[in-house]
């Protein structure tokens, strides 16, 4: 099929008339609607294709001169894009926090795109604005559980905000700390506040050398971005070593006091409600006490673990989250909503006013426009997807999914413990865990080796883990990710481990068993396995 005509008639058709029911685009849409798993298994190719090869299809920097028929373009997308995408629906794709989605999001997303609402203000969103406010109210209620009268007063109030909807946890964390900064360095007599006067003037007025944010070493990388964007500087992110994967409250208090005695001010302590590497939860209740003693903001990054609050059985693992001044939750993680749905929630509905902005043509004073207190301006109607998921699943539905994921992680950890050539490196708190392939005799050797020998052996095991992870990924049957961390058994050394996220409801016990079996088979055939065994044998000979 040749080029499409450059004419107003053709362009109007693109805006107003759908493709013919037998067109390629219509076929794709029908296949997705009928059976998305079958569509992905047919069109997402698992064979190894290097990124360099894929880049060749996307190397032309010139804008196409002439229009292309939609069906022709759809064929091109199937061949060049879809074929080399990642099948996140696969039950054996357990390496990251992106998972299968319920089918209802496909037609609902079409509705959302078709309406094309802009949530920056009511004039471009109408009913979507109260809907988004209600979603924020529901999530606020999930975290803070205030009386009904509280929500009656604040949910749709032009003068208050229960939170900010955003594209994800990074923007949510930045938003929360932005509010905290503007609150701490707010207007006083003779000073207009940091929002107007700037950071240098605020430091002079408040007699502060630096403003810092504290988190554990397991804190999300977005916190480094946050202190950068907010002008604090990356050196003012106080990352505390976490050999047990969580932030030690006593250590946090000690470091915070010393920091403030040096003429600095601690802006916030960030507790993590489910780290991205291991799923551990900081002792939030105790950290709330520390924040209170130090006189700083307490933020909880629960982008991953916040959905655990739906579970009556496991919500206590986030005990203390209700004491946070602000909380980040990503709906596109364990709430099974498409990418682009994060939230920053504020305990006090007044606090968001610290970042309120106005403009004459938009965001007028006194309006209920959501953009007045959000970092992002133009935003789509993703809140509708969260709203729909909350209604279609309900709390009990989410509870079932969350409980099953956490139980599945427990089950997998027990499978690893029973597998002789594998070693569990972190015990799951939620639905994440880490482990590594490590021959049984090597594990025994590590228990009795001195520090120097143990470090040398672990370096060889690291090479084995990397080799297995790469080969398993390239084979395309399954996927686990890898990371480096200080495990409880090896607190003085970073080791390389497999990282799995067990949120996909489609992942079964048999899938997990198959993944372990594949890793074991790959491992025993690698040169890294041979090198490791030879090295351990040599160290035993030298010791004798």
TrEMBL record:
NCBIfam families attached to this UniProt entry: NOD_PanD_pyr
GO biological process: carboxylic acid metabolic process
E.C. number: 4.1.1.11
Record key words, sorted: Decarboxylase, Lyase, Pyridoxal phosphate
Family stated for the protein in its record: Belongs to the group II decarboxylase family.
Needed co-factor(s): pyridoxal 5'-phosphate
Domain of life: Bacteria
Modified residues (N6-(pyridoxal phosphate)lysine): 333
UniProt GO cellular component terms: cytoplasm
Molecular function, one GO term: aspartate 1-decarboxylase activity
Protein name: Aspartate 1-decarboxylase
Enzyme class: lyase
């Amino acid at each position: 099929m040749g080029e499409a005509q450059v004419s107003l008639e053709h362009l109007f058709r693109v805006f107003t008339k759908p493709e013919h029911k037998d067109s390629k685009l219509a076929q794709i849409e029908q296949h997705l609607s009928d059976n998305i798993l079958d569509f992905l298994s047919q069109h997402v190719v698992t064979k190894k294709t290097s990124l360099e090869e894929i880049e060749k299809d996307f190397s032309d920097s010139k804008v196409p001169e002439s229009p292309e028929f939609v069906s022709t373009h759809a064929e091109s997308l199937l061949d060049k894009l879809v074929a080399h995408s990642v099948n996140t629906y696969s039950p054996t794709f357990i390496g990251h926090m992106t998972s299968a989605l319920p089918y209802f999001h496909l037609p609902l997303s079409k509705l959302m795109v078709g309406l094309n609402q802009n949530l920056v203000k009511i004039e471009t969103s109408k009913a979507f604005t109260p809907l988004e406010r209600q979603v924020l109210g529901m999530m606020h209620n999930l975290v803070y559980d205030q009386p009904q009268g509280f929500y009656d007063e604040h949910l749709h109030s032009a003068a208050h905000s229960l939170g900010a909807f955003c594209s994800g946890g990074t923007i949510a964390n930045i938003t929360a700390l932005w509010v905290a900064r503007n609150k701490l360095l707010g207007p006083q007599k003779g000073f207009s506040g940091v929002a107007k006067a700037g950071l240098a003037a605020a430091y002079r007025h408040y007699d502060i050398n630096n403003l810092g944010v504290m988190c554990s070493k397991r804190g999300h990388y977005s916190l480094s971005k946050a202190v950068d964007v907010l002008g604090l500087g990356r050196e003012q992110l106080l990352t505390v070593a976490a050999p047990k994967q969580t932030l030690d409250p006593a250590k946090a208090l000690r470091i915070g006091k010393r920091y403030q005695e040096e003429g600095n001010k601690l802006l916030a302590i960030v507790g993590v409600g489910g780290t991205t590497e291991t799923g551990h939860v900081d002792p939030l209740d105790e950290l709330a006490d520390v924040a209170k003693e130090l006189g700083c903001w307490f933020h909880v990054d629960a982008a991953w673990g916040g959905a655990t609050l739906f579970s009556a059985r496991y919500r206590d693992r986030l005990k203390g989250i209700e004491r946070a001044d602000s909380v980040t939750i990503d709906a596109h993680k364990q709430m099974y909503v498409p990418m682009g749905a994060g939230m920053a929630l504020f305990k006090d509905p007044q606090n968001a006013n610290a970042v309120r902005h106005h403009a004459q043509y938009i965001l007028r004073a006194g309006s209920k426009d959501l953009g007045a207190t959000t970092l992002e301006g133009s935003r789509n109607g993703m809140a509708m997807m969260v709203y729909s998921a909350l209604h279609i699943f309900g709390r009990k539905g989410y509870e079932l999914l969350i409980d099953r994921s956490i139980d599945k992680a427990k089950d997998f950890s027990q499978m690893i413990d029973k597998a002789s050539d594998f070693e569990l490196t972190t015990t799951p708190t939620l639905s994440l865990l880490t482990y590594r392939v490590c021959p049984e005799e090597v594990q025994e050797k590590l228990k009795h080796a001195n520090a120097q020998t143990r470090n040398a052996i672990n370096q060889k095991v690291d090479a084995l883990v990397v080799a297995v992870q790469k080969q398993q990924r390239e084979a395309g049957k399954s996927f686990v990710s890898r990371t480096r961390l200080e495990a409880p058994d090896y607190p003085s050394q970073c080791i390389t481990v497999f990282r799995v996220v067990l949120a996909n409801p489609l992942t079964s016990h048999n899938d997990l068993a198959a993944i372990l079996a594949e890793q074991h088979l790959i491992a025993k055939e690698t040169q890294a396995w041979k090198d490791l065994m030879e090295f351990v044998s040599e160290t035993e000979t030298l010791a004798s």
